[in-house]
Design goal:
The protein is an alpha/beta fold. The chain is built from 10 helices and 10 strands. An 8-stranded parallel β-sheet has the order 3-4-5-6-7-8-9-10, with helices on one face. Strand 3, helix 1 and strand 4 form a beta-alpha-beta unit. It is globular and about 55 Å long. The termini are far apart.
């Protein structure tokens, strides 16, 4: 797999659609700068933009996607997320329409539930709203973010219940993507294995660990060996694990550098060596929340 990776590599999703394996994240990108940053990413060759209602920058992302010269809409993959406050049926249903209005796009490629908060009934209701959005042609693929294995198991139960309630196979929706903070110091192997068994794509946010691990011995050794930045090594690790990394930057040179990942490859042993058994997330961690939270 490593040898065949390229900037235009895509993964096939359970929904039947394809997702570009390298994404461009816009968390904390100011609303008035999102359009420029997305423009820069598209110019470099990214074709996947990861936003969220909570980021407050969907409009700038949408404007870039609609107006960027030379890149057809169907070649750009756009993701947004239902915020914590809307994890319920009515909230999620309304958020899909809000995101379409904010972005000016005719459809959303991927809509995720941003976190598992709200309790079981509200999680089921929010998922049902996303299923209906797919059926209405507003959204193409759906998924979740920050779900623990216990939340994922519950979602499978909800999907089965919705199939029974709504008329049969497929009527409960198809889980295509899950997004988590994943890097060598928070590898989440239990979640990755759950997804792998079901063909669910795994997206990795904060793949650069917010720069908090620069200088780690194994990371530095590999960067020196390949003449690459430590950021590039971490992104290559994520790609070779089969994940969809979502690096973010507002700096033109770094946006470009974070896509220059295809002229070297880590050995399988180096991929394993870089991964640790530490559990040190650097962001919020709803994964560990209880089902009743």
């Amino acid at each position: 797999m490593a040898a065949s990776l390229a900037l235009d590599t895509k993964l096939k999703l359970p929904s039947g659609y394809e997702i570009p394996q390298l994404g461009f994240g816009v968390w904390q990108t100011p609303a008035d700068d999102a359009e420029r940053c997305v423009n820069e990413s598209l110019k470099v060759g990214y074709r996947h933009v990861d936003s969220a209602a909570a980021y407050g920058n969907e409009a700038g992302c949408g404007k870039s996607i609609r107006e960027t010269g030379g890149v057809p809409r169907e070649q750009i993959y756009f993701t947004s997320k239902v915020p914590r406050s809307s994890i319920n049926y009515e909230g999620a249903k309304a958020q899909v329409d809000k995101t379409l209005a904010q972005t000016g796009l005719e459809y959303i490629d991927l809509m995720l539930l941003h976190c598992p908060y709200g309790g079981s009934a509200n999680r089921k209701g929010a998922w049902k709203a996303l299923v209906e959005a797919v059926e209405a042609g507003k959204v193409r693929s759906i998924g979740v973010s920050n779900y623990g294995v216990h939340h994922l198991d519950e979602l499978e139960t909800h999907i089965a219940e919705l199939e029974a309630e709504r008329g049969g196979k497929g009527k409960g929706g198809v889980l295509s993507v899950g997004q988590w903070e994943i890097h060598p110091w928070c590898a989440r192997r239990d979640i990755a294995e759950w997804c792998e068994k079901r063909g669910v794509a795994v997206e990795a946010y904060s793949p650069l660990v917010r720069g908090e691990r620069w200088g780690e011995p194994v990371l530095k050794k590999l960067a020196d060996k390949y003449g690459k930045s430590e950021a590039q090594v971490l992104l290559r690790w994520s790609l070779q694990r089969g994940y969809v990394p979502l690096p973010k930057s507002v700096t033109e040179s770094r946006i470009k550098q974070n896509a220059e990942l295809y002229d070297f490859a880590l050995t399988p042993e180096e991929v394993d060596e870089l991964e640790t058994t530490e559990y040190k997330p650097v962001c919020w961690d709803p994964v560990v929340s209880k089902l009743e939270d």
